[in-house]
Design brief:
163 residues; single chain; alpha+beta; 6-stranded mixed β-sheet; Cytidine Deaminase, domain 2; 3 helices
Length: 163
């Protein structure tokens, strides 16, 4: 009885929608600390889960926005071909998280496609590697007129910027 009431309440609840970004605000190329910590925890929870859909080697892509109270939320979760550059995300997106099933670079880290996305969009991108546990994570951002990246620890601690 209680379970059925909870299901009915969940179905009746309004879906979480991303709060639109005011036209006067400028998107920060480097994620805020709270956003980085949110991605470090929530993004890694998705690591290792299968991707649904027709593309077997798809990466998982999460779009991070803010809810109506201003808290970070995962607004969208989709599968995306691993060898493609991400398109520009919709307005209201604060950051993008890309979970890669395997690394394609000589040294694990962001790929050329990840760097190209940040160069084009100037939006923070978090890359999480699903090939290891704990899942390694990098933040890729537009810093000092160049694309740079750094490692992110288990709870959001940061390493130095690298080219």
């Amino acid at each position: 009885m209680i379970a059925s009431l909870l299901i009915i309440a969940a179905l009746a609840a309004e879906p979480v929608t991303a709060r639109p970004v005011p036209a006067t605000s400028v998107m920060a190329p480097i994620a805020d600390t709270e956003l980085r910590e949110f991605v470090a925890i929530a993004g890694r929870k998705v690591a290792g889960r299968p991707v649904g859909g027709p593309i077997a080697s798809a990466d998982k892509v999460l779009l991070v926005a803010r809810d109506d109270k201003g808290f970070p939320v995962i607004a969208t979760s989709i599968g995306f071909p691993s060898r493609q550059t991400l398109p520009t995300p919709p307005k209201g997106t604060l950051a993008v998280v890309r979970l890669r099933q395997r690394y394609e670079t000589p040294v694990p880290g962001p790929s050329a496609n990840d760097l190209a996305f940040v160069a084009a969009s100037r939006m923070p991108l978090f890359v999480i590697g699903e090939w290891a546990r704990p899942a390694p994570m990098w933040e890729v951002a537009w810093v000092d007129d160049a694309v740079r990246f750094r490692t992110i620890g288990d709870v959001g601690e940061i390493g130095p910027w690298q080219d």
